[in-house]
Fold this sequence. Notes:
- The complex is a heterodimer.
- Chain A is an alpha/beta fold.
- Chain A has one domain: 3-Layer(aba) Sandwich (Rossmann fold), CATH 3.40.50.970.
- Chain A is 45% helix and 10% strand.
- Chain A has 15 helices and nine strands.
- In chain A, helix 2 packs antiparallel against helix 12, helix 2 packs across helix 13 and helix 3 crosses helix 10.
- Helix content of chain B is 39%, strand content 21%.
- In chain B, helix 10 links the parallel strand 11 and strand 12.
- In chain B, helix 1 packs parallel to helix 9.
- Chain B starts with a strand and ends with a helix.
- Strand 9 of chain A pairs parallel with strand 9 of chain B, so a sheet runs across the interface.
Amino acid sequence: xxxxxxxxxxxxxxxxxxxxxxxxxxxxxxxxxxxxxxxxxxxxxxxxxxxxxxxxxxxxxxxxxxxxxxxxxxxxxxxxxxxxxxxxxxxxxxxxxxxxxxxxxxxxxxxxxxxxxxxxxxxxxxxxxxxxxxxxxxxxxxxxxxxxxxxxxxxxxxxxxxxxxxxxxxxxxxxxxxxxxxxxxxxxxxxxxxxxxxxxxxxxxxxxxxxxxxxxxxxxxxxxxxxxxxxxxxxxxxxxxxxxxxxxxxxxxxxxxxxxxxxxxxxxxxxxxxxxxxxxxxxxxxxxxxxxxxxxxxxxxxxxxxxxxxxxxxxxxxxxxxxxxxxxxxxxxxxxxxxxxxxxxxxxxxxxxxxxxxxxxxxxxxxxxxxx
Amino acid sequence: xxxxxxxxxxxxxxxxxxxxxxxxxxxxxxxxxxxxxxxxxxxxxxxxxxxxxxxxxxxxxxxxxxxxxxxxxxxxxxxxxxxxxxxxxxxxxxxxxxxxxxxxxxxxxxxxxxxxxxxxxxxxxxxxxxxxxxxxxxxxxxxxxxxxxxxxxxxxxxxxxxxxxxxxxxxxxxxxxxxxxxxxxxxxxxxxxxxxxxxxxxxxxxxxxxxxxxxxxxxxxxxxxxxxxxxxxxxxxxxxxxxxxxxxxxxxxxxxxxxxxxxxxxxxxxxxxxxxxxxxxxxxxxxxxxxxxxxxxxxxxxxxxxxxxxxxxxxxxxxxxxxxxxxxxx
Lengths: 372, 330
């Protein structure tokens, strides 16, 4: 099997292998619509970021990386868990969390998904089992814990961790893979390898270049695929998720992909000079949406009219999300304590009685423990 | 409420609390290295694996960060994990999980998700434990919003605070001083709770308030008994939990005595003693008859040699001297 990595993608130029032969047209259109919706959502947020200056939090746009969230949106059920990195918007929408509450969260409003406490990089939507965080390797380990909980409770759901290849620099990533492999947990590791940790390429940070081989030594099924072929991404994740659901243990899927935007914010960071122009151009020619779109147009599944409808539907939703966010109120300050702690403990009330004895005989010989 | 009690050691009381919690609710889960072996983490987990099996009593790889994160993930799915570390020092591998995830999970979800995770952190003392087996970092963890911190001194409190933590809705770190594990105390057989933020006046007195925590509570009580014979009537207050801290009970005591000594089994600077003294000074500072005094460890790591340990850990005589200083100065 030929090895796919960033060098091979750059050497191959325009990708020609996206095939819809084994994909039904409804699914293909669903994936396409999701990616268009996500792309336009990100472009609209980026366009509005500076002029209005009302989004006062770090936003990490995922333009160019739409395929993984699109595939997950078609595969995950309500009861499945999804833990995302800070480039979170696609994953948030993949779990069917509402776009309007995401916009309101980025605007820091009380109607935001988290009442304006989290912002873009820490957003969660617990009722849909969606969580994210900026210290991202930690979230991979938490996904493994969710997998443990599901296994112990014998539930047929899965826990998916979405992260970048930089998370695999951290030791806890390997602790997590080890534990998932050891207990055959229902976990799917989705590694979006976009080559860079901010500016620093993987080759500058990691000894050896095959994450997939390293993960495989832990007894975790692993596979590297071209991450902008959404059909392949869907197929690969579909197998991994089905395996996890059926008790066949964890999988690691590495998706070779690319972030078009800057590490964060709407402005380009290419003046830093960390990535060559031809690399960016090659990846733009391999846009996950365009690759699928040309296949859909070829098969006649997508027409110019339908394309416009899909785009218009996304734009209406985006306009309404902006309206919701901008007209919502900022959060009120209630109590700092109540933001951080519970005010009730119903389980303790149910199981425990209050007894309070203060007496204590202090005149006991303190035994010095010898050794350990 | 009256309850039947038996004399149990501190470690037996923890064991009984764990057994009862696991019997009452199937979501309670115990995780830690070697929890399913005969010695049972100083007998606190003995017998549990026989009763509840390996799916509820989980030995874990030597990966504390992953273990704490696994507990967080399991809690998200509805479990109530209890973690145990043979020594708090090993737990420091999980500082990212505790600080960046566990403590702020409720906050950043806007109260839509919470993590009832309990971490038992055992602190060694004596017999050459040295600098990597003896750190009682109660002040560090109490500094962090979103985590409750308990420091039980008696078998009674060890069980009651453990049960309250397991069936509460917030993350809790319980600092357990190993040197207390063999102390016995009447412990009710029923499952009961000791509330957070509720200090215990261990001995009434009128001359000096001595606030002591963890293994310093029995030393404080012995010093108080000795001082009583010398004509100084000490009130001993055990806060039992540091986050939240029962400032009211401490201030009420100081209003009565006008003098304050704090015994803190942590380093001197920026510690729990400093916080307690400040809290008192802020509220009733103008009623103090003398400057507050603190009894702490020096600002140094713990030495192995017993000759140096004797200087490192404050003795009963040091307690008496500190109280006398507060009592006799104006």
